[in-house]
């Protein structure tokens, strides 16, 4: 078996990224004839036309679309291997990192994380954006550097993940609510009027499944898409919010929190990033700070009151 020409990977990456033979040739500084020969070799090697004529332009084949992400990652990894290693100078680092999180993360960990970043790298700025879904598109296209959340079916298979902390659900009511006094039994909990948190507008979840063995069912009177909204409603009514403990620690201040009287599954909140940033020294430094900040923030403010 002949040794493959790895230079073709760079050509293939340019062709798939640009979607144009002309632009790919310009990017690689090749003549049109040299680019045509390289494309012919790529088609012969892969056994696929890769780009086909559609009107006045070219469109990628299914095989080309399938290869695009993999080839891009391979080329970036090769470039990282061949690039001279640079010593990270935090005092001179000027960079903005975008972190996508669900509500509660910034409120509980943001201030400490910013303080740590400022102390070590004053030229670094953090940009926090909301996380409306679990899709990995923003990590793949580079618009987001880091993300926090639960690894799920929609998380890209190539995405790197490292556990930050275990979270559990708990009940929250206003001070003076009937559930702020006495033992919380499954029936007392279920008899109340509840707020359901669901980004997809669903009225049932793991808590309802946990109540089923007791023959109980919650009365859901409101569905919201976030923890802040659920807690705001509970703070100003007799409704019951059920939210994760760690992510809502500061959001629950001034309210009564209690352990659920039924077994509810714990969730692992992880730090997520794309593998193209895995070896980046500045990115690796920031990941370490996020991990340390979350570990150090286990204060009474985020425990059951």
What features would you highlight for this structure?
five-stranded mixed beta sheet, Arc Repressor Mutant, subunit A, elongated, 3 domains, 12 strands, 37% helix, alpha/beta, D-Maltodextrin-Binding Protein, domain 2, 22% strand
Short description:
The chain has 305 residues and is an alpha/beta fold.
CATH architect. name of the largest domain: 3-Layer(aba) Sandwich
Large-scale geometry = elongated
The largest sheet has its strands arranged as: 4-3-5-12-6
N- and C-termini, Cα separation: 68 Å
Structural class category: alpha/beta
What does this structure look like?
The chain has 305 residues and is of the alpha/beta class. It has helices at 7-18, 21-28, 32-46, 62-82, 105-120, 137-140, 186-191, 206-211, 227-235, 281-296, and strands at residues 51-54, 57-60, 95-101, 124-130, 146-149, 160-167, 169-174, 193-197, 219-224, 240-244, 255-259, 267-273. Helix 1 crosses helix 2 (21-28).
């Amino acid at each position: 078996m002949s040794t493959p020409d790895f230079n073709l990977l760079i050509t293939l990456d340019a062709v798939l990224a640009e979607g144009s033979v002309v632009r790919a040739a310009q990017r690689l500084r090749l003549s049109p004839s040299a680019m045509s020969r390289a494309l012919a070799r790529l088609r012969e090697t892969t056994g696929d036309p890769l780009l086909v004529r559609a009107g006045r332009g070219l469109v990628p084949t299914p095989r080309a679309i399938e290869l695009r992400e993999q080839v891009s990652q391979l080329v970036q990894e090769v470039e990282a291997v061949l690039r001279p290693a640079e010593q990270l100078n935090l005092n001179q680092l000027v960079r903005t990192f975008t972190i996508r999180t669900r509500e509660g993360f910034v409120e509980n960990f943001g201030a400490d994380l910013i303080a740590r970043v400022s102390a070590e790298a004053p030229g670094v700025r953090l940009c926090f954006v909301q996380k409306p879904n679990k899709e990995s598109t923003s990590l793949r296209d580079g618009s987001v550097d880091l993300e926090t959340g639960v690894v799920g079916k929609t998380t890209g298979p190539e995405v790197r993940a490292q556990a930050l902390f275990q979270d559990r659900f708990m009940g929250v009511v206003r001070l003076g609510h009937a559930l702020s006094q006495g033992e919380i039994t499954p029936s007392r909990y279920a008899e109340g009027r509840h707020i359901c948190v669901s980004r997809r507008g669903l009225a049932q979840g793991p808590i309802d499944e946990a109540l089923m063995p007791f023959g109980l069912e919650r009365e859901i009177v409101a569905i919201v898409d976030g923890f802040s909204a659920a807690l705001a409603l509970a703070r100003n009514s007799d409704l019951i919010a059920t939210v994760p403990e760690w992510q809502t620690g500061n959001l629950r201040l001034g309210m009564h929190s209690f352990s659920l009287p039924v077994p509810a599954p714990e969730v692992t909140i992880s730090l997520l990033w794309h593998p193209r940033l895995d070896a980046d020294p500045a990115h690796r430094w920031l990941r370490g700070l996020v991990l340390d900040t979350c570990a150090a923030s286990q204060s009474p403010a985020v425990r059951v009151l």
